[in-house]
Amino acid sequence: MLLTKKSIAALALLSAGAFAHDELEMISVKGHHESDSPLSHIHKESVVKKEVLPQKRISHKNATNLARAIDMEPGVQTTLTCANCGSQRVTLNGLRGENTTVLIDGIPAFSSVSSFYGMEAIPLVGLDRVEIMRGAGSSLTAPEAIGGVVNLVTLTPDSKKFSYQVRGGEHEFFNQQFLGAYGTQNGGTLIAAQTNQMGSFDEDNNDVAESSRQLQKSLFFKQENRLGDKLKVSVRGGFQDLELIGGTTKVSRVRTAPNPTAEEGDFDRGDVRRQYTGPTSRIGDWIRLKRLDTGGSLTYHVNSDLNIKGAFSLAKQDQNAVYFHGYDYDNKDMFRFFDLKVNKVVSDKHFLTLGVDSRNEEMFSNSKVLYLENSFPRDSFEFDTLGAYIQDEWFITEKDELNLVLRVDRMKVNWLDKRLPNAELDKTAIAPRVHYKRIHSDQYSSRFSYGIGYRAPLTLFESQHGTNEEGFLLDINKLERAQTFTYTFNREEEKRSSAYSFTLTHLEHMAYGDETSEPMIFKNASEAMNIGTLNFLHVEKVTSQWTLEASFDWFMMPDSYKRKLPIAAQETRARLVSDYHFGKNEFVAFLNVVGPRNLKKYNYDRNYNVMTEDIFFNDVLSARKKQHAPMYATIDLFFNREITKNIDWTLGVTNLLDYTQTKSKESPLAWRVHGEHAHLDNRHIWGPTQGRVVYTGMKIEI
Question: How many CB atoms sit inside 10 A of residue 483's CB?
Fold first, then answer.
């Protein structure tokens, strides 16, 4: 039986896939409640491959921020790019963090600048679920999402609810979350707050920390109302305050840049594995991030076949930082996004979306050492994009659905320091996208997708901090451009589900910093690169109380691409998750295994343990850091006991085996060689930098 016009309206206008996000909170998977649905599953109704993480899954990980919540999910890596400053980037399909776009309720909310430290600042209180859509073209309003999109879906305030959760443990770990909601089916108010603290780790006891101390506070507000049958208004607002203290094992906030920077004599025998005896300022980083953001949408249903939706997002983020490389760096980033779309049921088989959006970003930087004393070029810029798009969702048959998208963008980047060559980038980009879903039977389905994405390179200077003490030059004249092909095969049965997927990304004009020149030159790569990702996920209901999940990821990256990454990526890994319910108890175990890697391909052969005169001119193998990362495993455990109907008690441990790369005699600390000079760096990263943390806590929910 063919779909009727009314059934298309109900499906399309209320759940326009990963693109429109209209009324997305109303979607549920038939036959499953959160308590018995798979721990990680593919959203069956979406034509775009969408992996959904419910709040319960996030709680099992003891995740207090987005970076931790989605790490190790299929195709997802959270990479620590600097052990001192604590920057974590979320990467999808092996692409860099700059190629991941974060949405809040389907609306772009973060730029590539604000997400550099922002992944640590994003709280999880107030969230209903996290949706992950991988590949270029996975979002209608985010053409720069070459790697994909992470969508944070906030709770709908449609009932009365109050909850308070507190957890604490080793290494000064302490987390509090408060949530209050008051509403009805016609709307309501949601208020949430979170504080989080984590101490530093110094596994080799040399007084240099391998992970930064983190202090985070956040507030979140949401007001949502339905005004009659035709109008829905939703407004949210948030505040985040993040402080990172790196390098030093003490609560020492370095406020002025060290001069001189760390020298050979600051370590016993010049060896970074031995005791540090120099001043704290020469190893300490301090970063403070304050962010105010707001956003919302207005949806007007003209009739059962037509609605109009407007959306906006505004964010102001201030960063103040002092780096142990010998300079200070501050920036102010202002991000604005506006979108207007019309959704129309054209016929029994076609659902059309027409829209325009505008994105504007201004970033102004300041540095006493870099700009006032040394007069290096600034990385301040203005960025404007005006886009238009059209999408046709074609319900060919009951078993076949095709999404055709065409998007056109006019992008302009203006680097404000006119001493830079190629200070302007003015380009027009056209991106067609195709998504096709085929339902083979009640149990089996396939998804094909092809999309084009493009990004104006913006986070150059700051994203490579620590390698640019001599300033930088700019030779960017092209947009980064990617073509992504994805195939996914799904099996969904009553007691088991599986997903097999393969993604191939053809990346052109990748922007990167060439470290072989002094000062560093940021430029487009001359060669195109193919990055592949192979994923397997299987979830098995062994019994009504016991669920097992197994997954495997293989990231295939050419050597030319690896040499341009800021940090060594994971290449192969496997995960096993066991979730067992017995009575009022739940016990969850995570086993993560990461395969070995050749680190030399990531330019790690420039990293040394011992500073000697010869390292500038000769290959001193005895002083060089190890160039092979071994296979390693980590285990996380989570236990929850329902004390009463409203009170739960939790006991857990992260990194049970207490495995860190430092305990393998390879800390992230190294002397990094650039031409004929070397400086102290903390980016020789290939494994965990935080050891075991045992924690416990309570949650009260009314």
Answer: 19
